[in-house]
Amino acid sequence: MIIKIRVITNAKRSEVVSRIGSILRVKVGVPAVEGRANEELCEFLADFFDVKRSDIMLRKGERGREKTIEVTGRSESELEEVLDTVP
Questions:
Q1: What is the C-alpha separation between 13 and 1, in angstroms, rounded?
Q2: Which of 35, 58, 78, 82 is spaced 20 to 30 A from 22 at the CA atom?
Q3: What are phi and psi of 42, to 5 degrees?
Protein backbone atom coordinates (compact mmCIF):
# COMPACT_ATOMS: atom_id res chain seq x y z
CA MET A 1 0.00 0.00 0.00
CA ILE A 2 1.25 3.48 -0.86
CA ILE A 3 0.59 6.20 1.73
CA LYS A 4 1.20 9.95 1.54
CA ILE A 5 2.63 11.37 4.76
CA ARG A 6 2.99 14.95 6.00
CA VAL A 7 5.70 14.98 8.67
CA ILE A 8 5.93 17.40 11.59
CA THR A 9 9.41 17.14 13.10
CA ASN A 10 10.84 17.97 16.52
CA ALA A 11 7.64 17.10 18.39
CA LYS A 12 7.50 15.99 22.02
CA ARG A 13 6.67 12.44 20.91
CA SER A 14 5.99 10.47 17.75
CA GLU A 15 2.30 10.04 16.97
CA VAL A 16 -0.28 10.06 14.19
CA VAL A 17 -2.08 13.39 14.39
CA SER A 18 -4.81 13.08 11.79
CA ARG A 19 -5.82 11.94 8.36
CA ILE A 20 -6.87 14.53 5.83
CA GLY A 21 -8.20 12.78 2.74
CA SER A 22 -5.41 10.49 1.59
CA ILE A 23 -2.67 12.27 3.58
CA LEU A 24 -1.62 11.02 6.99
CA ARG A 25 -0.17 13.69 9.33
CA VAL A 26 2.52 12.29 11.62
CA LYS A 27 4.62 13.95 14.32
CA VAL A 28 8.10 12.60 14.99
CA GLY A 29 10.09 13.31 18.11
CA VAL A 30 13.41 14.15 16.47
CA PRO A 31 14.66 17.08 14.37
CA ALA A 32 15.08 16.80 10.61
CA VAL A 33 18.85 16.46 10.74
CA GLU A 34 20.94 13.93 8.82
CA GLY A 35 17.97 11.68 8.01
CA ARG A 36 17.08 11.06 11.65
CA ALA A 37 13.47 12.15 11.14
CA ASN A 38 13.07 9.77 8.19
CA GLU A 39 14.44 6.87 10.21
CA GLU A 40 12.23 7.72 13.20
CA LEU A 41 9.21 8.01 10.88
CA CYS A 42 9.85 4.58 9.36
CA GLU A 43 10.37 2.95 12.76
CA PHE A 44 7.22 4.59 14.12
CA LEU A 45 5.15 3.52 11.09
CA ALA A 46 6.41 -0.06 11.43
CA ASP A 47 5.08 -0.10 14.99
CA PHE A 48 1.87 1.69 14.00
CA PHE A 49 1.05 -0.79 11.21
CA ASP A 50 2.49 -3.75 13.17
CA VAL A 51 4.95 -4.75 10.44
CA LYS A 52 8.72 -5.21 10.34
CA ARG A 53 10.89 -2.14 9.83
CA SER A 54 12.02 -3.65 6.51
CA ASP A 55 8.36 -3.55 5.31
CA ILE A 56 8.38 0.28 5.39
CA MET A 57 10.05 1.94 2.39
CA LEU A 58 10.47 5.65 1.74
CA ARG A 59 9.69 6.08 -1.96
CA LYS A 60 9.64 9.90 -2.36
CA GLY A 61 10.32 12.98 -0.31
CA GLU A 62 13.54 12.16 1.48
CA ARG A 63 14.30 15.86 2.05
CA GLY A 64 10.80 17.33 2.24
CA ARG A 65 7.84 17.27 4.60
CA GLU A 66 5.63 15.47 2.10
CA LYS A 67 6.65 11.83 1.77
CA THR A 68 5.43 8.78 -0.07
CA ILE A 69 5.76 5.58 1.93
CA GLU A 70 5.18 2.01 0.78
CA VAL A 71 3.97 -0.45 3.41
CA THR A 72 4.18 -4.19 2.79
CA GLY A 73 3.92 -7.18 5.10
CA ARG A 74 0.14 -7.06 5.60
CA SER A 75 -2.82 -7.09 3.25
CA GLU A 76 -4.18 -3.80 2.01
CA SER A 77 -7.49 -4.38 3.81
CA GLU A 78 -5.65 -4.92 7.12
CA LEU A 79 -3.70 -1.70 6.57
CA GLU A 80 -6.92 0.16 5.74
CA GLU A 81 -8.42 -1.04 9.03
CA VAL A 82 -5.47 0.45 10.89
CA LEU A 83 -5.84 3.74 8.96
CA ASP A 84 -9.54 3.84 9.77
CA THR A 85 -8.66 4.19 13.46
CA VAL A 86 -7.02 7.59 12.78
CA PRO A 87 -9.25 10.56 13.68
A1: 25
A2: 35
A3: -65, -40
The CATH number of residue 25's host domain is: 3.30.1200.10
What is the DSSP secondary structure assignment for residue 85, as one 8-state letter? T
* Kind and range of the H or E run holding 23: strand 23-27
Which three-class secondary structure state does DSSP give residue 77?
helix
For residue range 13-43, list pLDDT tens digits in order. Answer: 999 999 998 899 999 999 999 999 999 999 9
Which domain does 60 fall in, by range?
2-83
- The model's pTM is 0.93
Cα angle 49, 58, 78 (rounded to 5 degrees) comes to: 25
